[in-house]
Amino acid sequence: MGLVGAPLAAASPVLPALVQAATPAATTIPTTARFFKTGTTTASDASHFFSDQASLKTTNGQLQLVMTMPTGANYVQKLQIQGSNQAANIQKNGEQATVTFNLPNQSGKYVVEMDLQLAPGMTMHEAADLQVDLSQVKTASAEADSSQATSSSQTTTSTATTKSDHQQAQSTTQVSQSQTTPPTQSTGTKQDHDDVLQLPVSFLKYEDYPAPSESGQFFSKTVSVKPTADGYQLTFHLIGGAQFISGITFNGQKPVQTVTNGAKVDYSFKLSKQAYQQGGGVFNFDLSVLGNSQQAYAVWNNKAFNPQAQKPQPFEPPIPKPSHHVIDSTKEIQDIPYAVYNEQGTKLSDANSFYTHVAHVIKTGTSGYDVTLTIKAAKGTATFAPISMKAGPITNQTHSQIGNQDIWTYTFHVNDDSALDQPFTGRIKVGVPLLGMPAQNYGVWFAFGQEKSSPGPSALSTTGYGTGNAAAALSASGPAGGDITSQPGAANAAAITPFDLKAAQKRLAHYRVPNGIKHRIQAALVDYPIVQALTAFLVTGFAIIGGTMLWYTHATRKLKGFNHEED
Question: What total of structural domains would you count in the chain?
């Protein structure tokens, strides 16, 4: 096999290619290939699964790189070099595999995109830099060119390879120029398929910019940009997790086109020229689980992007407000109904199904009120942790398992009796192990004074939490709305069972709580009637003993009299 260079045209680069020679041993060339983290010289995690020893060959004029995977092949779904005309050919044998890449050019530096399935239903899209030693290719090409210059049959370069290299050079120009100018201002960046540009895109946390967002693992690392008459059309490529998304918007706009292909979805949005030049925008994902939403930035131009310009103005959620104070300042202990809405405040959250919808409120002297909420789910179906409550700090939280239920409680403190009059936001961390969903933060709205709960048995009874006997209430009541995978928030419509506070207060009459420590406890201390019980026990015991002695004396006398008569 010889290596020669063959220019296709005056403006085209001279690309050496491996060609079939008379000697069969020349069909492959040994080389080395290593993976690095994108844009760095640090070894990528992919390097642990690929051998550095590789080989080069040509097939139908296409220069190819052959690598081996000693382990980890069972996780790989797809591998492809950016700019290549097709995905790599993967020949698997258990955890091992032989992978053949089509090299789009002979730069020796490439970006490999990887689709990995780490678990059923969980696909990740990653990328890594690949550096290949092509020095042997270039040396062999020079030798073959000097010794076989007269052989036209061996100076033919693969048209497919040259064309792919030419497109790769164009794509590189597009990416570099798109960082500073809109696509229409770039020179020589148009591709053959309707002037669509492929730009790198990053997904970053909305609340913690510029940290990477979890949503990024479900999207392709590139966004397709197509100029239109009045702006641009951007197409984002969802490569996994479509079953968890019930709605999606970008910069507040719904997709103008949605194309579904199995588990993959392409979402297209129209942007004005001004919006495009801002370098990024805000995604809002409505999640089918818990009825909540998540936000993330999608950024394709880091230099131009300003996250502060993307922040929306504060808004009033469309949640009904009570016409009076929710907290009765004349009461020491009270129970107040509430409902949990999604992050937009437009409908009940699915999390509402697991709250018990009645808050236990205790007055803490002159320093405000402690408000305790309870959450229940079928045992092992979910994980839960409170993150924050805008109305006041979280001061205590518990988790226990009673019967077939997981039960969480948490307490937050408010400073005055008007703190619950307006709806306020909170954040909770919820995971669904049954669906393979890790715990994530969700935003919700809390509206007090509303009696809205999920279908099913009431979370409280007239002898429940309001009496201070929390354990009895929680063990007696059923799951609030079923387990976490089955109850949509839209179905939450039933009202809770009214609570008889006066009857409960009568049963609380023998409870005593020292004034100095009321703010430290959530239930009254019980004065058990030990003296009365002991007295009753002694009286009963003496009565039994006395009766026994009287019976014995009487029986003895009768027996003695009977003996005298016989004498």
Answer: 4
**Phi-psi region for residue 549, left (φ > 0), alpha (ψ -120 to 50) or beta?**
alpha
Q: Give the pLDDT of residue 142.
A: 52
d(C-alpha 453, C-alpha 326), whole Å: 18
Count the alpha carbons within 13 Å of 38 in the hemisphere toward its beta carbon. Answer: 10
In 3D space, the residue among 397, 78, 446 whose CA is nearest the CA of residue 264 turns out to be 78
In this prediction, residue 442 carries a pLDDT of 86
Q: Is 183 helix (H, G, I), strand (E, B) or coil?
A: helix
Residues of the chain with pLDDT under 50: 1-26, 144, 146-164, 166-193, 290, 454-499, 522-525
pLDDT digits (tens, 9 = 90+) for 425-435: 999 998 877 76
**Tokens 């063990």 label which residue?**
475
pLDDT value of residue 515:
56
Rounded CA-CA distance 396/394 in Å is 6
Whether residues 152 and 216 share a domain: the answer is no
The answer to whether residue 241 is domain-embedded is yes
Q: Could you tell me if 494 and 546 lie in one domain? A: no
Residue 42 in any domain: the answer is yes
Q: What is the structure's pLDDT at 314? A: 59
Domain check: are 253 and 110 in the same one?
A: no
Do 249 and 353 reside in the same domain of the chain?
no
Cis status of the peptide bond prior to 210, with omega within 30 of 0: yes
pTM score, whole prediction:
0.34
Residue 386's closest CA among 376, 397, 378?
A: 397
Query: Containing domain of residue 477, as a range?
Result: 333-520
Half-sphere exposure (Cβ direction) of 432: Cα atoms closer than 13 Å: 15
| Cβ neighbourhood burial of 382 (10 Å; 0-12, 13-18, 19+) | buried
209 and 252 in a common domain: yes
Examine the domain organization and report whether 126 and 227 are in the same domain.
no
- Same domain, yes or no: 276 and 399: no
Domain CATH number, residue 292: 2.60.40.1850
pLDDT of 370: 95
The span from the first CA to the last CA of the chain, in angstroms, equals 141
